[in-house]
Write a structure and sequence with these properties.
Oligomer: heterodimer
Order of helices and strands of chain A: EHEEHEEH
CATH superfamily of chain A: Ribonuclease P, Pop5 subunit
Number of helices of chain A: 3
Helix content of chain B: 40-55%
CATH architecture of chain B: Alpha-Beta Barrel
Largest sheet of chain A: 5 strands, antiparallel
Shape of chain A: globular
Largest interface: A-B, 18 and 22 residues
Strand content of chain A: 25-35%
Number of helices of chain B: 11
Number of strands of chain A: 5
Strand content of chain B: 15-25%
Distance between the termini of chain A: 30 Å
CATH architecture of chain A: 2-Layer Sandwich
CATH class of chain A: Alpha Beta
Largest sheet of chain B: 7 strands, parallel
Number of strands of chain B: 9
Strand order of the largest sheet of chain B: 1-2-3-4-5-6-7
Structural class of chain B: alpha/beta
CATH class of chain B: Alpha Beta
Distance between the termini of chain B: 56 Å
Helix content of chain A: 25-40%
CATH topology of chain B: TIM Barrel
Strand order of the largest sheet of chain A: 2-3-1-5-4
Chain lengths: 105, 262
């Protein structure tokens, strides 16, 4: 039987002049998610930061397959993390963490 | 991966129609910034020049961009005070740049610009200006083959209620444009490199505005590319009328034929 909610793993890269910590990244993505889609919308995303490398500034976030576009919009509208200007680029989207790491990370 | 009739892979070209010259400052960082733009996936960008200032770094950017396989074109934003001023400015600047945009600060200007074939894009610099775009303006824009522009930076600068109202108004504009068949372009309008986004992320704004997925793809690739192509052919010295061009080789053959006849 096909699962109603399937996970998607979005691999992204941050462009910024300063280092960005994992805590600040999570805090600001959540803040943007709540601002744009509200608590109800955010609850549907099943958002979680799976991995983040502070050196390469690459990371993986999880969401449901129905909310990929929501997360894409949220990441695109993220302009500052802890007052540091940032640009987020999505490197790829995958159905499993393994493929996400192999292909895009 | 898309293939054409001969089986060759079609590489999609993505365009950012609105990049301010300030993105490339300081001058020493031009190479680094071009590298990031290339990484983002753009193959064409339009750099906005100041219509009043002649001095700019455009040529330097264009030269360096060749190393990164990025084509760079000129874009001028006109901010006319009234319709008369718009007409004068169009006459003055049309042949000086590849892309000409009019900021629709007033309803009258918006209407005039929409039906003028010399105008490529209608730009709405403030939230209030979006109200100037109505169904009648859309009809004129279709006649004049003018596109409308939704720029990303506008959405980055505001928060809360202001952003909600901006999204609602932009959604209304997009709905009218889609209904009437006006081309929509989504670009960054970036003042610095951190305000730029990859084509897919620019397109993500379309999800907020309820633009169908198929159309979203067009807003960052086909729509701007078609405007550029038609303007480049218009600016070429061989251009006579839309669809009519002077072809050099035919002229040579005709001369040869004339010589043999005599």
């Amino acid at each position: 039987m096909v699962k109603e909610e399937r996970n998607r793993y979005i691999v992204f890269k941050l462009y910024s002049n300063n280092d960005i910590s994992r805590e600040n990244l999570v805090k600001d993505i959540w803040r943007n998610l709540l601002t744009i889609y509200g608590e109800y919308g955010a609850s549907k995303t099943n958002f979680w930061l799976i991995e983040y490398d502070e050196k390469t500034k690459k990371g993986i976030v999880r969401c449901t397959h129905t909310t990929v576009n929501m997360l894409r919009t949220v990441l695109a509208l993220t302009t500052k993390i802890a007052e540091t200007p940032v640009m987020v680029k999505i490197l790829g989207i995958s159905g499993t963490i393994k493929t996400a790491k192999e292909k895009f990370y | 991966m898309r293939k054409d009739q001969t089986g060759e892979i079609i590489v999609k070209k993505y365009v950012d129609m609105y990049v301010l010259q300030t993105v490339f400052q300081p001058k020493e960082q031009i190479d680094k910034i071009l590298e990031i733009i290339s990484e983002l996936g753009f193959s064409i960008i339009c750099v906005t020049l100041d219509a009043k200032k002649e001095q700019n770094i455009f040529e330097e950017i264009k030269k360096k961009a060749e190393d990164f396989n990025i084509e760079v074109y000129r874009r001028i934003n006109l901010s006319p005070k009234n319709v008369e001023d718009l007409k004068n400015k169009l006459r003055q600047f049309r042949r000086k740049c590849e892309i000409l945009t009019v900021k629709c600060l007033e309803k009258k200007i918006c209407t005039w610009a929409a039906r003028d074939r010399r105008v490529d894009i209608l730009n709405f610099p403030f939230f209030e200006c979006l109200k100037n775009f109505t169904e009648s303006t859309a009809n004129l824009a279709v006649e004049g083959d003018t596109a409308i522009e939704i720029w990303f930076k506008q959405f980055l600068d505001v928060r809360g209620i202001k952003r909600a109202r901006l999204i609602a108004e932009a959604r209304r504009v997009a709905k009218i444009a889609l209904k009437k068949g006006v081309k929509i372009i989504i670009d960054s309008g970036a003042e610095n490199i951190f305000e730029m986004r990859s084509p897919r992320e620019l397109g993500a704004l379309g999800y907020l505005l309820d633009i169908p997925e198929k159309q979203i793809e067009l807003t960052v690739s086909e729509n701007p590319l078609n405007i550029l192509r038609s303007n480049l052919s218009k600016l070429s010295p061989n251009f006579v009328l839309p669809g009519v061009e002077i072809v050099g080789e035919e002229e040579e053959n005709w001369l040869k034929k004339k010589e043999t006849d005599t």
